[in-house]
User: Fold this.
Amino acid sequence: MKILVTGTAGFIGSHLAKKLIELGNEIVGLDNINDYYDQKVKYGRLQRTGIIKNLEDGPKIEYNKLLTSSINTNHKFIKLNLEDKDSMFKLFEEEKFDAVCNLAAQAGVRYSLTNPDAYMDSNIIGFMNILEACRHNNVKNLSYASSSSVYGLNEELPFSTNHDVSHPISLYAASKKSNELMAHTYSHLFDISTTGLRFFTVYGPWGRPDMALFLFTKAALEGSTIDVFNNGDMLRDFTYIDDIVEGIIRVINNPAKKDQKWNGKTGQVSTSSAPYKVYNIGNNNPVKLMDFITAIENKLGKTIDKNMMPIQAGDVPTPFADVQDLIDDLDYKPETPIQEGIDNFVDWYLEFFGYNTDGSKK
Assistant:
């Protein structure tokens, strides 16, 4: 297929684009390469797929210019904002995509507390442009990133896609739930197959610098102190990046179908009479935050100094996923052990940032 993958300078998007290319697809990657976090990491992701030859070329990438990978000519990239409607429509008209996977978004729960406009621009207006571009260019296969944060104040565990998610506790979560509602509308009105993916704490090599694993590893190597929120009494459904990518690919290859038995009185929340579906992607095996930290310490042979803190506004203490419908529909369940995943991340971190395991620079 010819697939548009947005967010390919990002963590999940870069891994997905690389794997889809390896499987023989033609990929156009899109990202605005904003400065939400260290752009060196974003440029590094583009470098490893041949979009740029070295990190110094990153800042020179021109806006709205299609680039071809030096590694595989079936992989192209364009620097573009989702909210740039005219350029988005032109891209769709010229490239004629078979499918779209929208992973581009303004990420982060805490950032949304102080920068709400960024979430409206990218996550609402940008997603609207994706939907409209699909509608007007006959793209019938759309998958998109939602988030486990949509569960908000829901306390029924494990989180199921058929639970009520009417009480988000961050603007980020509200924007992701809005995406699900918008997608359903377009599935209903225009027969576009849409599948939302509620990701649960994704981790692994090339991860985001604002996430816990990155911050904890950096602190361990530098001998600094980490803040451990909710006094360490947190559970997270940590899901390794390769498992996430496998799940996304199965979704792309199996577009949502109409539930022929669905009705407005007894129908499940996660399906519809329209070609619409929402899945959780998580391990269904929550890990204690302190065990996660211990796995980093095991890999590095260091003890990390910890500052125990109360829970942060917008955080959900114990999210983990019911993934039974993913197993039933796509025969898929994440399985990477936490220590193996953390070992892979730390190996990448040491190499990319030039550290020895004792914290000294190479």
